[in-house]
Amino acid sequence: MKKIIFRFLILIFLSILGLITYLSTIGIKTNALNDQIIKEVKKINNQLELELDKISIILDPFKLKLVLKTIGANLKNKNKLIKLESVKFNIDLKTVINKKFSLSELDINTRTIEIKNLISFVRSIEDNPQIFILEKLVKKGYLIADINLKFDQKGNIKNDFIIKGFVKDGEVKPFKKINLSKINFIFTIQNNEFEFKDINLSYDNNDLKFPELILIKQKNEFLISGKNKNKNFVLDDKKINQLLSNDLSNVKFKSAEFDLENTFSFKINDKYKIEDLKINSLMNLKSSKIVSSKNLKEFFPELNEIIELSDHQIQIEYKKDLLSINGNGNILIQKEKDNINYNFSKSKTNLKFNTSLEIKKNPFHLNFLNYKKDQDDKLKIVILGVKNLLSNEINLKDISIKEKNNKFEFKNLFLSNKYKIKSLSKVNLNYFDNDLLKNELSIKKKDKNYLLNSKSFNATKIIDDLLKADKNLEIKKNFSKNFKLNIKVKKAFLDKDHQIKDLDGYLEFKDSELINANLAGNFSDNQRINFTIRSTSNEKIITLYSDLAKPFVHRYKFIKGFEEGNLDFHSVKQKNNISNSKLIIDNFKVQEVPALAKLLTLASLQGIADLLTGEGIRFTDFEMNFSNKDELMKIKELYAIGPAISLLMEGYIESNDLVSLRGTMVPATTINRTISSIPLLGDILVGKKVGEGVFGVSFKIKGPPKNLKTTVNPVKTLTPRFITRTIEKLKKN
């Protein structure tokens, strides 16, 4: 009996073992549990419908679980459908025995799903603004995922779920003008942590790579961190302008090619705004092209239309609204490459900058100071400053230009939001200029005004600028505040050969216009020079007197060999911008005036022409009355009288476009004969003896300044006006 029982038990054991072996390896197929499984899925979301074929049931004897698997299931909601590759369910045996059927684990393997269809499916279950926005941003792409869900005893999904998969050929348009395509990556989602690896995408035909990107959900916020590394990134002008901030909108980039490495992190708050953004970047800027500003031509005479940057190493750091950029590399502004080093630090309220430019074989000019860099010497420019982003005002704390022993320093130059000078604390200049003259000058601010002190200063360039047309006494609208400049100069050069000692006085500016001035100094041998400006509500009166006329006259290149003489200039400028002026020069001689020489030759006055190019023609009196408005100068009357010849002329000069002059030229013998024929007055002024001579000539000079045409006609009778003016001068003398 015992043997029978023992054999029976062994048979049962073997049967059970065989059944277990069969169920755990081969299993059985049935649809008996389909309804139960569908009900369990509806517990997750009652809108979901799961379509199942027959299910393979396999026993896991060690975990006391039933593993249910089906191929080709479908997940539906209304008219939306997601096709699944396979679905695997783990069911606790205890729940089956206790007739409380419940899932313990669910594995879903999807087929290739179009992402837009997946978003649309999710939105059909739970429609919210985030999913709606996501549906608008995503343009295309495909997804394959493996989903593992675990359930508690009540059928709720536990937090230790895992979703793995990859995205292929995605396309997203996060902003209106930015499109990201060819998006491929692997992802793992576990509880509140999202991990993305091997991210590849394309932006404007540039391939971008992100080795990793991690997203962690904390309550209603997301913490995101990652890295990316990109090579041979190329942007054109349109793409650069889309990416740049308004602070650089005045810089016109044409292109950029670079390698870039980034590490970054940020937080997205419950209102879907980015916070705590941190970026560390290393950029290798291979090349970049920028449209140059015409204003730079004044400093860089061989300025290229396009400025090129090359081989720049740039460190970029952004943290808590503070952006820091440090870089250096080559810059091609002119013909040869130079080196530039820069540091920018931007906060919400200001932009700090520190830039240095080393110029090697290229030229550099400071025309307003009559300075040019030696072609073979190195020159370094350092600019340190800060821009207030609220007011757009700039403080250039330090501007330094150094070349060997030449130094230019400007301290605390404040510019308004329209780039006008508000104030300047200090200027130090110590350099040799283009005329090889030494300049030592300092300007210091004192209260609202300034004091200019100088041991030696070459004023040649300033005088040249003052003598140019009617704009000569107004500086450009560069100052936003009114001020007075007190001047004390030990030695001022008008040119290489003429110096003024102890130049003293002041210049007063209002609305960037020179309104009052009083400057006085001495030449050698007690010869004086005085310059004044006096302004009223209706007019500006300008005077210049110099015991030496040559330093001013010889600046006109068409006059050579000017000697002796003194100069007296008087001008009145009205509110309508018309100025009426008188220029008087007494007791001088000239040796070469091309226009006059041509007139003398055409008039057959070869003897006087020879005198002009030889010892020179002397004039006792020269007087010109003229007016200026904008680019037009009208010569009302130009009269010159001398022992050999006299001139009377009028006409106009229209800038560099047109010259139109006419007048009368008479040798002195003809003048004497004419005047001596006047009863009684002729005897008193000239005397009885009259030398032989020719009649005078009338002339016209007309055409562009570089192509003047001159005609002459003999005159037998002098005009009453000519005789009257001559008599007036003779009486005066």
What does this structure look like?
The structure is a single chain. The chain has 733 residues and is an alpha+beta fold. Among the domains are: 2-130; 591-732, no CATH class. It contains 13 helices and 41 strands. Helix 4 runs antiparallel to helix 5 and helix 9 runs antiparallel to helix 10 (606-613). The radius of gyration is 47 Å and the shape is rod-shaped. The termini are far apart. 17% of the residues are buried.
Low-confidence stretches: 469-475, 669-694
Figure out the total of helices.
13
What's the story with the biggest beta sheet? 39 strands, mixed
**Average residue pLDDT:** 79
> Which oligomeric state applies?
single chain
* Gyration radius, rounded: 47 Å
Structural class: alpha+beta
Q: Please report which band the strand proportion falls in: under 5%, 5-15%, 15-25%, 25-35%, 35-45% or over 45%.
A: over 45%
* Gap between N and C termini: 170 Å
Taken from the alpha-carbon principal axes, the silhouette is rod-shaped
Classify the helix fraction into a percent range: 10-25%
Question: Could you tell me the number of beta strands?
Answer: 41
Topology overview:
Elements: H1 2-25, E1 28-30, H2 34-44, E2 49-51, E3 55-60, E4 65-71, E5 74-77, E6 80-92, H3 93-97, E7 103-110, E8 113-114, H4 115-125, H5 129-137, E9 138-150, E10 162-175, E11 178-190, E12 193-203, E13 206-218, E14 221-236, H6 237-243, E15 253-268, E16 274-291, E17 306-319, E18 322-332, E19 338-346, E20 350-359, E21 365-366, E22 371-372, E23 379-388, E24 394-403, E25 406-415, E26 421-432, E27 438-446, E28 449-458, H7 460-466, E29 483-493, E30 499-510, E31 513-522, E32 528-535, E33 539-546, H8 550-553, E34 563-574, E35 579-590, H9 594-602, H10 606-613, E36 617-629, E37 632-641, E38 645-654, E39 658-667, H11 668-676, H12 681-685, E40 697-703, E41 709-714, H13 720-732
Parallel strand pairs: 28-29
Antiparallel strand pairs: 1-3, 2-5, 3-4, 4-6, 5-6, 6-7, 7-9, 8-9, 9-10, 10-11, 11-12, 12-13, 13-14, 14-15, 15-16, 16-17, 17-18, 18-19, 19-20, 20-23, 21-22, 23-24, 24-25, 25-26, 26-27, 27-28, 29-30, 30-31, 31-32, 32-33, 33-34, 34-35, 35-36, 36-37, 37-38, 38-39, 39-40, 40-41
Helix pairs in contact: 4-5, 9-10
